[in-house]
Structure formats: C-alpha cells, structure tokens
## 1
Amino acid sequence: MMNSPFSRGKAKIMYQTSQLTDRAYDAIRDKMRSLTTTSLILGVLTGLSACVQVSAPDKPIVINLNINIKQEVVYRLDGDAKSLINEEADIF
C-alpha cells in the first residue's frame, strides 16, 4: 500500500500544497480587495473635488459676418425664341 495515491506521505504533500495555494489565493484576494477599495475611495474623492460652473455672460454675444453676395444671371436665348418672346410679350 505504500505506492497507492492515498498513502500517508502523498496525502500529506497534497494537503500541504493545497494549503499553500489557498494561502496564495487568500493573499491575492486580500490585495485585490484593498486595491479595489482604495481606487473606489480615490475615484469618489476625485469626483467630489472637481466642480464645473456654467454661467451666462454679462454682455450679449456678437457675431460679425461680413458677407458679400453677388449674383449674376446670364441667359441666352435662341434667335427664334427671342423673336417669339418679343411677338408674344403679353403672355409673359
């Protein structure tokens, strides 16, 4: 029975290994908990410390736009269309 996996020596080694991994997991869990708590507290303090104020200006906002608009309409009429318009000026 010395070679069975449940012999006293192997079971003791498995138990010790299990204890080591449990301790490692507990240590990691504790570190993560403290890191999360610290970051949460810092985030809340940062959010509370910054304050943005928006107020209307005393003077009205003036926007000066210097725009020149030129429009040129160029039309060309065929000679027959031009003579038709001149003849039938009363319909237009």
## 2
Amino acid sequence: MKSIKQKPDPILPRAGLPDFRNLGVLLRLLLLVNLFAIATVFVRVDEPAAYPLAFIAMAAKVELPLFLALLLLFALQPLVERLSARNGRIAVVLVALAVAAATFPLLRDGDASALWRWLAWAAAAAAGVLLYFDNRSRRHSRALTEARLMALTARIRPHFLFNCLNGVLGVIRADPRRAELALEELAELFRALMRENRELVPLGEELDLCERYVDLEHLRLGSRLNMRWELEDCPRDALVPPLLLQPLVENAIYHGVEPSSQAAEIVVRAERRSGEILIEVDNPMEPGERHKAGNRMALENIRERLMLFFDLEAGLEIDAGGGRHRVSIRLPYRRKTP
C-alpha cells in the first residue's frame, strides 16, 4: 500500500498562455482589445462631439483583424500550447502583426507611413492582452491553492473518520478481511485528499475514489444506503478537477440517507454529450431537511475550481424538486494527449 504524502509540494504561480479555444478567454480577449481601442480614441480625439464618429471609425479598423486573429489563434492553439511560455508569447504577437499587415490595405487609404503606427498598435494590444492573462494566471494559481486548502479542511467531515473506525471495530472479529480492506480504502481516500491536487485527473480515478468512499459508508449505514451508478456512456479518460465527485456523494449521503429511517437511493450519472461531459448526483430529500452551510461550502468550492480550470465552459447547477436534490455539472471533454 502506498504511503501518504504528509507535506505536499507548494503550489507556485505559473505564468502561462491562455487557451484560445476557451470561450471565456475569447470573450475577455474581445473585450480587452475593444477597451484598448476606446482608450486610443480618447487619447487621440480632443473634442467630445467627435467621439461617436471616432468610435465608429476605430471599430471599422479593429473588428476585422481582431476576428481574423482570433480565428487564427483558435486554429493554432494545439501548436501554441506546445511552445514554451516565451516562444508562445512571441508567436501570439507575430500573429497579431501578420493579421494587421494583411488587413491594412483593406482598412486604410494606402498611406504607407501609417502602416508602422498600425503595426505598433497591434503589437501593443497583443502585449497588453498577454500581460492581462499572465497576471490573471498568477492570481488564479494563488486562488487555486486557497481553494485546495479549503477543500482539504472541509472535504471529509470529522465524524466520518470516527464512524469509519467504529465500523471497522464492529466487523474486525466477524470479518477481519473486510476490516483490513476498509482500512486500506480509508488510507487510499486520505492519500488522495493529501496529494498535490493542481492538475486535472481522469474521471475514472474520481469514480474509483467515490466507490471506496461508499464502501466505507456501507459499514455504518448498511442496507439503508443504495447506490446506482449510471456510467454506460461515461468516458473514464475525461479530465476533471481532482476531488470533484466525492464531496457531492458525501453531501448526498449526509442529507439524503442519514436523516431517513428507510432505505434511500443515490444515483450517480456521467455521460458524454458531443464535446461536453455531464455529471449528476441525485439523492432523496427529506421533508423539512435544510442543506446546512457545509453543503453550500462544498458546492461553492467545486464551482470555484470549475471556474479556475475551465472558465465559462463549465458550470454547476442545483435542482431541488419532487422530493429529490440534484447537482448537475457540465464541463468540456478533455483527455490527455498521447
């Protein structure tokens, strides 16, 4: 059995290039360049009455090369992401310059002296965008560290460890092999909690971790806990944030099974739809049962990490109705490249 890593390596901020196939990145890039264009108009035009026409003229010059540059960066993303950070930045600036030079004859009156100013503006806009995303990447690295630390402190409720050990003590005489497996599962669970959790992990690993967790809860809840895994169309190689499913299953047990005196069923679904992965955890909801702050903390932690890893391409939704509580997660389908 593998040992638990007591002191994970510190997470250092890493400067990186944005993902030009990410919807959030593309929207931010459009906004930043247009804000730069507006700022340019304010600097160049002195009379407020001339602002409307100046804005229209600037938009006519900026939008076409901007959209062409976005399309080109979208197409070149697999190549750019293989470059070093320095070379990648140079490549982005060169793309901006090439598009600006190619569209200059269409957008200007042919004055060659204006070409250099146009290229300088394009290079400055590209550099400003890269500086913004570099700063954002560094800030989000710190935010991811804080989110991970919060996840470590709030992921497993303290009573779970004591309940699990009591369950092991309850079967250690009657079924020593089951007690040994339970302790191994507990060690694997805490090893996953304490490891470095900065990178995305395969969905299959998350499902295996959840199955270990459910096996441990079976020691305490027995036949009251029924699990249904609907994973026929689940791509286990899909990359997801670490420790994504376990807190959802834990909340489902805590709020859907523990308050009930009858057997309760929790449903875990995962499937691929086109270019997205849909994950759902569905549990019964006892009348009058209120989801406590710990539940909201876990859900907000997951929502924050989805935002950090996938930006606007991922989301988390909650639906409580018909006596069921359902948490649905949507994220893009990504897998490790060979």
## 3
Amino acid sequence: MTTRTLLRTVSATLAALLLAACGGSGGGGSTELAGANVAVVATVAPDFSGSNTQLIDLDNDFETTAGLTPRDRSDYALARFGGHFYPIGRFQIDTVAKYSFDAPTQQIYEYSTLDTPEDPTSNPADLIFVDARKAYLVRRGSDKIWIVDPSAESEAAFKLGELDLSAYRDADASGSPEPIDGVIVDGRLYVVMQRTVDNSPSDPGTSPFVAVFDVATDQEIDTNPDDDASNPKGIALDVRNPNGFAYAPGVGLFLSATGDPFASFRGEPRRYNGGIVRIDTTDFSTTLVVDDGPETSGEHPYGSIGDLVILDADTAFFSGLEAFQNTSLFAFNPTTGVANETPVAGYAGIDIVTLAGGPDGNLWVGIGSVDMPRIELVSPDQQTVQTIGLIENPTAIRFAD
C-alpha cells in the first residue's frame, strides 16, 4: 500500500463548505484565469471529510482562488488538458468530471467510469491524454483501460474502446492487475500495474509489470519478443508497489516504487523492496538507480520511496516515507543515480503529500497541515523560494501541457 493508497482508505461523511483562500501574496483571486498560466491543485480536508479544487495564478504572484468544486467525499485524483481540468472520483465514486478555466465553478459533465451500474467500483486512477478527442482512463479496479473522448457531449459517446490487461491478472480474487499510472512517451503508452495479492505488494509469486501500447493503433507492444509466447508482453519489475512514472525529455523515463511500508497492518515486518527504476524506452530494459536499502541490512536512509520528480539531467527529487505523515525530501542525480542520504534542509519529518515540477523550473512541494496547508517552491539548489497558502491539504498539482 502506497502513501496515497493509505490516504484514500481514510474517509468521512461530513460536507466541507470552503469559501475562502489565501494566496502567495495573501489574497483570494478571480475565478476566471487563463488555463495556460494557472496551476490546478486538488485538495482534501485534513479530516478527509471533503475535497476541493483551487487555481494558482502563475502570472500574478501565485494568487489563489477560493475553493471551486466543494465535494463531500475526499478520494479524488486530478487531470488537465488544454483549457480544462478533470476531477476523477476514485474508489466507489467512479466518475470523471470536466471543468473549463473560463468558468471553473460550472461543471460541464460528470460521467460514470463503471462498466455496469452493478459493478462495485472501477477505482479510476488517471486520465492520460493523446489529444482533445482521445485519452486513456486507467482504472485500478479493472483489467480494462478505457479509451475515451474527453470532448464527448454525452455519456454514451464518452467511451470509445478498451485496452486489455487481462494477461496480467494477479493471484487474488480482484480480477484486476491494479493499473495505477500511465504516461505517453514517443507515441507509446506505458501503464504500470501493482499486481498486489490481497493488498500485499510483497507476494513472492507476483511481480509488477509495465505494459506498453502503440498510441496510433492501440495494440500492445511485445517488449520481450524472444521470450516464451505464453509470457506477458510487458516489462517485469523487480521492485514492489510501484507508485508512478516521472518523465523528462532528454533525461529519460523513471518509475518510483514504495515497497511494503505498511506490512504491519497484516502482522508482518516492514519490507524494503522498492526504489527508483530507469526504463530504457529503446530496448525496454530496466535499471535500479536508487535502492531503498537491502532487506537485511538495517540501512534504509530514505525510508520508503514515494513521489518522484525529474527537473533536469542533473536534478531530481523524491519523497521518503518513514511513517504516516512523517515524510522527508531527498535530492538525487537522475543521470548518475547518486542520491543524497541527508534530507533537503527544512524538509525532514513533515507531511509531504505530493510533488510536482513547475514550469518555473522549481519543485512544488505539497505539504499537509491542519493549521497551514501549503505548497512550497524549492529551487534546484534546494532553497525555498515561495510559500503558497491553501484552504486544504494539496493532493495533486497539475500544470499546462
């Protein structure tokens, strides 16, 4: 179970009505902002009683809006493309909604992500865009990725087709290989699957996989054509509990994996079997560039590795989880794989909820707090350069394409 998965399991039933926000310069802003110059932030109440969305004006001293989309449930992901943003209702919410930056409080649509109304949940995790008329909806609770039209004017026209992941089903009864994240690189869709067994990412007989599809044809690519034809076509991973992709042009495709920090929930010792993997998009080989520490060594300087952001060929950051709401920030060089075992100054033992690479070249660090939820901008030389106050704890930050 990853940090984000743990957060999703906490739920409540009270409504959150959020009417004001403070920006980087101390004030609430207009609700009509140009999408290209705005960061979109998904937020959640500290007690998980509700969620919301805020915009941050990158051209006006990081001024923030008030809460735009108050909801009485907390488990939402976030996507954006062009002039729109898309809150994604995850476990047992099972919806994709669409909003425009021109009128960000007015919902354009909200479509179901269930195959049938009787399905328990599809648990959608991400929406990866090819263009305004085609995107891939990754659903953690299903072995089918939906091909969708984000511009569809009716729910019946939303779903265009499917990608089949049934070859990767794991050994439990869920019927899903738990796809959790996707990214498009050079015309190929990469989808990572956790393949947990009964919520355990450490089952010795089940390895995570990355499936690769041609975006033009929607056909799966055989990444190991010399293997036995009965084997899955995807890329097998040695790490456990993959968390998500990080890609930077000219630097490469990377994947972070959390391992099994919450094994104690099952009465088992904590497992350090995660890390950061580089995927070669030419031959599909993998290299472990940052290890969370050998299982038996007792040396685990990063804790369990969480979110990952690549800024450039020499600069990357990742979060390291020690315990719930006890997370630190670490820097590493994605070219050499050398990671600093000392946390970035000022970012040790706090509640780092999410990371993102901003168009300003800085790392955006989302920090949870009952009293002061915020985003802090950290420069490549590890100096804090800006603090942006929020109405709730940030869970996802999205910038223009």
